[in-house]
Amino acid sequence: MSDTSVLQRMLQPSILISLENHYESKKVILIENQSPDSFIEIHKIPADALVIDLDRAFNNQGLFQGKSGECKRADYVIISEQEKKVLFIEMKRSNAPAVDIVNQLKGALCAFEYCQIIGREFFQERDFLVQYQKRFISVRHTGGTKQKTEIEQTAPQGERHSNPNYPLKVSWTQCIQFKKIAY
User: Fold this and answer.
1) How far apart are CA 20 and CA 149, in angstroms?
2) For residue 180, how many other CB atoms are within 10 A of its CB?
3) What value does the mean pLDDT take over residues 151-165?
């Protein structure tokens, strides 16, 4: 069974964000739950992408104390089987301390890895979501202030934003292409 099919069987439909038609391709609009005027549109997203509203869906505060940041999680996870990519996206209307953003991205990675285990153990999919490249993205200043878009790679030279400790920082934009943040 395809990874996408397993995810659709596994996840609650209410946590999936629908893709929209956009000219000859697809787009998705991600909205920060606490600030409805804080959003970003991702254009040319793969048609097979599943967009998970992790911030709304996942709460582990009944299990963990949260003293070390382990209860945090990013806002969204985008999974494309076609592209073999997983994007972890944390949005901020303004700015936030780097440690908070990193903890939120780490929490989202933990939720993803938990889904991998569920797929293996309960859906008998041994290689579930195994061959995917992970990308960690911090989107800041999404409140609509017009300034020049900034994209900052924080990973060590020659590496991509494949580690939650070194996310791609995107600032001052309300629209970006999928490939700009996925590759």
Assistant:
1) 23
2) 16
3) 88
For the chain, the domain total comes to 1
The pLDDT value recorded for residue 71 is: 75
Q: For 21-64, what is each residue's pLDDT tens digit?
A: 999 999 999 998 888 888 999 999 999 999 999 988 877 777 78
Q: Which residue has the higher pLDDT, 133 or 97?
A: 133
| pLDDT value of residue 166 | 96
SS3 sequence, 7-56?
A: HHHHCCHHHEECCEEECCEEEEEEECCCCCCCEEEEECCCCCCEEEEHHH
Please give the Cα distance from 81 to 65 (Å, whole number). Answer: 34
DSSP state of 149: -
Question: pTM for this one?
Answer: 0.93
> Which residue type occupies 18?
S
Domain that holds residue 139: 3-182
- In the sheet where 39-43 sits, what is the strand order? 20-22, 25-31, 39-43, 175-177
